[in-house]
Amino acid sequence: MDSSWDSLNIDAELKKIIKNEFKFETMTPVQAASIPLFITNKDLIVEAVTGSGKTLAFVVPILQILLRKSQTETIKKHDIGAVVISPTRELATQIYNVFKIFIDHSEEFDFKLMLLIGGSNTDKDIRNYGNNGANIIVSTPGRLLDILEKSAIFSSKIRQCLEVFVLDEADQLLNLGFEKTLNDIIEYLPKLRRTSLFSATQTKELNQLIRVGLRNPMKVEIKEKNLKKLKPNQLQMPNRLMNKYMIFESAEDKLPFLIDFIRQHPMEKFLVFISSCAQVNYFERILNRHLSGNNKILLLKLHRKLKNKRQKIYDQFRETSHSLLLCTDVVSRGVDIPQVDWVIHFDLPLTIENYVHRCGRSAHQINTYGNSLLFCLSHEIPFIDHCKTRGIDIQQYDDQNELKSDLQQLKESLFKWIRSESKRNINFYQMSTEAFVSFIRTYSTKHIMAKWLFKDCDVIDIANGYGLLTMPKMPELRQAKKCSTQFKGSDEDAKIVGKFKQILYDKKIKNNGLGPMSKTETNAKKRLGFKRNPQIAETIRKVHRNKTMKGRTKKIIFDELDVEELNSDARMVKKLKKSKITNKEFDDYFGLLSK
């Protein structure tokens, strides 16, 4: 196969920009295999590893198709000829910037380009389209559907003019729950269009996407040279990636090891993946305190709840060499981050495919090398075994001796500070609890191996690893096995937490317009005719009647019911303030006696 750009039947300006601006002398295998098919009206399903050049494999054909159309008919500024959908804002922005390089460097490509992602006002996007138009749309699924539903002009132009529809990271679009959104979007599209799906992994779910309207699609599957003999269920990794794992005896060892590891690798760039947004916020506070010195690393955090701040943080990380990004899987796929030296999996990924994509943030660019390090507790070794059965070459990290000299001392001082800060700072206490709760809920329900791993999980050890003062009351904790690990919180800690809870309770009542209630006020509430929520009251009666249930178990249930009822009461107060319910409905709910 001829891999030279000159062999392609595309416009000379395209070739010129590819060589001058992107510095690509030849096509990658995925580009050589898919571009000739794409520009000749074929629908494609393309599977290729991260860093293989998939973005140019659809950007170049889109521009060529629209350029060819513009030579025979006038493309008006509101005529939407191409739509590219990406699962995340970061990846959508990256694709948009690739298109922008072509459009900015040649007057021949007089196409209007528009980026539609969350974090901005939908009505503003609609006004921008009305004023400026757009011929190529790069969008996340939710924002595109929102505008299709709200703007008749926008949806009409797509139905009339659309030539090309591309789904990038197609399997993740399904994994993130976008199947219904995609089906709704497709209802707005013309039937006569080119549709292509691009992905780094082949999954069962990917086959479902063929139903989006591909007409006899051709499959393009590109594997790296040293992986051509892989079995069908095996996965590909970048061949310049050193893939390691480390087993920890205790969850308390992970955080001090991470701090020490970063200190031992000065002037390198780290991408640290954690399961949830609450964990990212918590660990960022801790690392900010303990990663200081003459060569202080730039520490950043990124997760979906940061909303319109995400792009600025992402750009900042891309542009710096000595930095660390604490993040969720929001940046695990497709994004091009220069020279990531270490991808560290502080928590296990939710799936094996997620693991592959995380690793692909390092060593995916031409002539670059990288490292991946998976943190693993002893009960999580089956995940490593599962990786090996899927063709992933992963070896145990063996450079541990150099890191053990001061590690125990660091561990003791670290957790002494964490517990001290939790006792002193109610916000930090909340962050620690929320981080632990979010991790347990993710680990016990969303992980592909949850039913195997969580049942062997030592939740007390994990709680100690978060420096908790008391154990939160969670139904998920009752599913974990009983272990002999001693929880490190004390009676004094429990008293402090009790005071914190009262402060938070009073604050919540005050914020809902009720004001903090004393015992006298509580008794007055009863005299005025307040009654308990009927459903909760019935549950309490059943628990009281259950003679086999032990006292401690009853207390836990009653505490949970009290919290549930408090939250329900708060919701009703908010509804009344927003006029979503009438005064009578409010009085009926609380059982207020009319005068």
UniProtKB/TrEMBL annotation:
Broad EC category: hydrolase
Motif placement: Q motif: 3-32
Coiled coil: none
Keyword vocabulary terms for this entry: ATP-binding, Helicase, Hydrolase, Nucleotide-binding, RNA-binding
Record carries keyword Nuclease: no
Residue ranges of every copy of the DEAD-box RNA helicase Q domain listed in the record: 3-32
InterPro entries in the record: DEAD/DEAH_box_helicase_dom, Helicase_ATP-bd, Helicase_C-like, P-loop_NTPase, RNA_helicase_DEAD_Q_motif, SPB4-like_CTE
Pfam families the UniProt entry points to: CTE_SPB4, DEAD, Helicase_C
Gene3D superfamilies: P-loop containing nucleotide triphosphate hydrolases (3.40.50.300)
Annotated ranges, domain Helicase ATP-binding: 35-220
E.C. designation(s): 3.6.4.13
A molecular function GO annotation: RNA helicase activity
Keyword S-adenosyl-L-methionine: no
Biological role: RNA helicase.
Family classification: Belongs to the DEAD box helicase family.
Domains (record comment): The Q motif is unique to and characteristic of the DEAD box family of RNA helicases and controls ATP binding and hydrolysis.
Protein's name according to its UniProt entry: ATP-dependent RNA helicase
Organism whose genome encodes this protein: Dermatophagoides farinae
Gene name, Swiss-Prot/TrEMBL: DDX55
